[in-house]
Write a structure and sequence with these properties.
365 residues, alpha/beta, NADP, oxidoreductase
Length: 365
């Protein structure tokens, strides 16, 4: 009998017309069907492979769930206790929702972060390109929360890659009013110019990564990683770097799950962070029939179900909202959990590349 990974089964059945892309088989950030038995819609051999793949997925998920449960006992709202883990970037971010800050600048940005800190957020995601690093520093100071209790992320923009990377990072530190960040990322794998040179982009990535390695050696960046890298970009970096990236920040939501990229990250021990976890509120995700049904069962919002779905995969969601009410709702996901069957059913919502709501980094050479 053939043994196919779950994404392969979905691709095969979609290609054969058995399942339409985006059809469940069972059952704002910046930057529905009834349950169906697999054997009733798939040929027997494929159904058997699907059942086998689901079994393996459930076993893996059970192991991850046990680890997440262990970490949750060490975490309380507003008090993120240190946790000893193989990946340093996980210590303050395990089982927590991060606050995305893209889209807001000036006083609106400061107020958003200040309210988020009051609610209990301790992971703050910014970037030089967001033009709000100074506002975030002001919000942290205004909150009175010690800097060491906040997990601060910033990123190097593609215009600053290469020889501009080192001074650009120092400028970010100055705006953030700190001598270190907890996580420094390369924002994109290269320029998005219409005419690109693969060799030039690869050179800029390598040069920029050396700057990140040096920043970590100098303890100006506690962890280093990448954002918006494809499997191609990541494999290239892993083949040449001295220090491996510890984090991948990429778009992930139920309609766009990127299973192959996420599997590579897990194989290489990269912590995964998901931006746009609610698909910018687009694609009808928040009105999805399956998700609304699960939300009703737990008396939760669809957003909370999606964020919990990510957390139970050991993925840290970076959720943006300018509304204190929504920020509080997004953060309050630690006192319920989804069943393995519900996790499986949500996995069948994946629509593939057409459901990406952000810029497609595959366009970068």
């Amino acid at each position: 009998m053939i043994s196919l990974p779950l994404p392969g089964i979905l691709a095969l059945t979609q290609a054969s017309g058995t399942i339409r892309p985006g059809q469940p088989a069972v059952g704002s950030n910046c930057h529905g069907a009834k349950a169906t038995n697999l054997t009733s819609i798939l040929p027997l051999s494929i159904a058997s492979a699907a059942a086998s793949a689901l079994g393996r997925a459930r076993a893996t998920r059970a192991s991850r769930k046990a680890e997440i449960s262990r970490r949750q006992k060490l975490l309380t709202l507003g008090n993120l206790a240190p946790v000893v883990m193989s990946n340093p970037a996980e210590a303050k971010t395990a089982s927590s929702v991060g606050l995305g800050t893209c889209c807001l600048k000036g006083q609106a940005s400061e107020d958003q972060v200040y309210e988020g800190l009051k609610i209990g957020y301790r992971l703050l995601d910014t970037a030089s390109h967001y033009e709000n690093e100074g506002n975030i520093a002001d919000a942290i100071r205004r909150s009175g929360i010690p800097r060491e209790d906040v997990f601060l992320i910033t990123k190097i923009w593609f215009d600053d890659m290469g020889e501009r990377a080192a001074p650009a990072f120092q400028e970010s530190l100055k705006r953030l009013q700190t001598d270190y960040v907890d996580l420094l990322l390369i924002h994109f794998p290269g320029t998005n110019d219409a005419v690109q040179s693969p060799a030039a982009n690869a050179k800029r990535r390598a040069e920029t990564w050396r700057v990140l390695e040096e920043a970590k050696a100098a303890q100006q960046a506690r962890s280093i990683g990448v954002a918006n890298f494809t499997r191609r970009h990541l494999k290239q970096l892993l083949a040449t770097c001295k220090e491996s990236p510890e984090v991948m920040q990429t778009e992930v939501h139920p309609y766009f799950q990127q299973p192959e990229l996420l599997e590579l990250c897990r194989q290489k021990n990269l912590k995964i962070q998901a931006f746009s976890p609610l698909a910018h509120g687009e694609l009808g995700l928040l009105n999805d029939r399956l998700l609304t049904g699960i939300a009703a069962k737990y008396q939760r919002s669809v957003a909370q179900v999606v964020l919990q779905w990510l957390l139970q995969q050991d993925i840290t969601p970076i959720a943006f909202s300018g509304s204190p009410k929504n920020m509080m709702e997004n953060f309050a996901v630690k006192d319920f959990s989804l069943t393995s069957q519900e996790m499986d059913r949500i996995s069948f919502l994946d629509r593939g590349p057409n459901a990406r709501v952000g810029f497609d980094p595959n366009l970068i050479a």
